[in-house]
Specification:
about 475 residues; alpha+beta; Aminopeptidase; Phosphoribosyl-aminoimidazole Synthetase, Chain A, domain 2; 7-stranded mixed sheet; 14 helices
């Protein structure tokens, strides 16, 4: 492009071109140039290593190399990032081998003035590595950096963990705070407490998935589907309107008995598409639509109320510090087309007996507390359960069951189709949920919020304090 601009005589655009750009190394020549630069700096200049600085991470196909190229195409910097463990990717990655060519460091002298702002190569590579890691679903991102670079990493939003030694040289273990879980919880649940004060009045079930109807064994639940989703994918919206409601009843240990729907649509054609999905789900789950309301000539809107029965509803706030946290989830299926990383579809391919086995699992096990995983994701929903129980929670990153090919970040923050979080005393509350996988993966603890616990003993906070502001149930 630079050559084309020069031929056209567009000198202004040529001068405005960035001095360098960051790209992923996707060919052997580029990786070799990065390795050569590392050898020049870490072996020849700094004498940190003898002969070479290569290790087994350079052979790992999961390792990602990002490089900085100046205008002429020369590689003037690079960084690598990769999963921290040799086994399954837990969402814990390491950054390292950050290198910048000597000519591209600090204030440039006249011979290199044409390169422009190459003194920003290091920070740009760090920012690019952070963006790549977060996009890849990483939830913990660490880097051991030379002590003299600590200040730069601090300016870029990293924080110091502790002093470490690498190649007999003082380094500092730095950690990038990744706020994906907190951001989702804030966007979906944070304002509920102040907004709903005085409107939730059944003691023991405040903020729950459903609510026991006083004086009866009825349990009611109600969910609205996001209008943009109704517009974009009306059939799927219809299916989900049933799915989310029967899951809410299931979390209460209630058996569903019927549904009421309220649908707004621009015309009959659009309404038929929504109702087609709702009808299929009603038939698949074996839960009849008892009635409802349909309005034409209005923007898309869909909400469904579900009624169920349980003599002894399971609360979402019945947990206590010391309780074991169990995740029961259907790992079959795939990302819903158009919602990759956000909505997992495991239910549309299930047979009715399989759906019934999953829905009845909480009612049969009767754990101390249960919540259906909502739009706040697995971690956010666990935060809601812990908040309602007056405590905090920990999740063991290595024990969280998730579908093959999904990242930790996506799985912990998506809507997973069917997933239940339950807590009980150790040894109690085992769920038999048919095709769903059920594993113990954490615990309730004193305090508040949610933290991830890692195989090396580190603990990283993903939620600070309560999620909804509704407090104890």
């Amino acid at each position: 492009m630079r050559d084309v601009l020069a031929l056209l005589g567009d000198t202004v655009s040529v001068q405005r071109e960035p001095a360098f750009h960051i790209e992923q190394a996707d060919d052997r020549a580029t990786v070799a140039a990065y390795h050569a630069l590392r050898r020049q700096v870490f072996v020849d200049e700094q004498a940190l290593f003898t002969g070479h600085d290569l290790d087994h991470h350079d052979e790992d196909p999961r390792t990602v190399v990002l490089v900085a190229r100046e205008r002429a195409g020369t590689v003037v910097g690079g960084v690598r990032l990769h999963p921290a463990t040799d086994g399954p990717d837990l969402g814990w990655w390491l950054g390292g081998r950050l290198v910048v060519a000597p000519a591209a460091r600090g204030r440039l002298t006249a011979p290199h003035a044409a390169l422009g702002s190459l003194d920003r190569v290091g920070p740009a590579l760090v920012r690019a590595a952070c963006a790549y890691a977060e996009n890849a679903g990483v939830l913990r991102f660490d880097a051991a950096v030379q002590a003299r670079n600590e200040a730069m990493f601090r300016r870029l939003g990293w924080h110091r963990v502790r002093a470490v030694t690498v190649a007999d040289t003082p380094h500092v273990l730095m950690r990038r705070s990744i706020g994906r879980v907190q951001a989702l919880a804030n966007a979906t649940k944070r304002d509920l407490g102040p907004l709903l004060t005085g409107l939730t009045g059944i003691p023991g079930f405040v903020g729950d998935d459903g609510v026991p109807v006083p004086g009866s064994d009825l349990v009611a639940a109600c969910d609205a589907i996001v209008p943009s989703m109704v517009e974009r994918d009306p059939d799927w919206a219809g299916w989900c309107s049933v799915l989310v409601n029967v899951n809410d009843l299931a979390a209460m240990g209630a058996e569903p008995v019927g549904l009421l729907d309220a649908l707004g649509a621009r015309d009959r054609s659009f309404a038929s598409r929504v109702l087609a999905g709702l009808r299929r789900a009603s038939e698949a789950y074996g839960v009849p639509v008892l009635g409802g309301h349909t309005q034409f000539g209005v923007p898309a809107a869909l909400s469904v109320t579900a009624l169920g029965r349980s003599a002894h509803p399971v609360p979402g706030g019945g947990g206590q510090p010391g309780h074991v946290v169990r995740l029961t989830a259907d790992l079959a299926g795939r990302w819903r087309p158009g919602y990759a990383g956000r909505q997992w579809d495991s239910t549309t391919s299930r047979r009715t007996p399989e759906l019934h086995a999953m829905l009845s699992s909480v009612g049969r096990a009767r754990p101390a507390a249960a919540k259906d995983v909502s739009m706040a994701g697995i971690a956010g929903t666990l935060g809601m359960l812990a908040e309602a129980s007056g405590c905090g929670a920990e999740l063991d990153a290595a024990r969280i069951a998730r579908p093959a090919g999904t990242s930790a970040g996506d799985w912990l923050t998506c809507f997973p189709g069917f997933a239940m979080l339950t807590t009980d005393e150790p040894g109690n509350g085992t769920l038999d949920a048919g095709p769903a996988v059920s594993v113990e993966c954490g615990r309730l603890v004193s305090g508040g919020g949610v933290a991830l616990c890692w195989p090396d003993g580190e603990r990283t906070e993903v939620l600070a304090g309560g999620v909804t502001g509704l407090g104890e149930a």
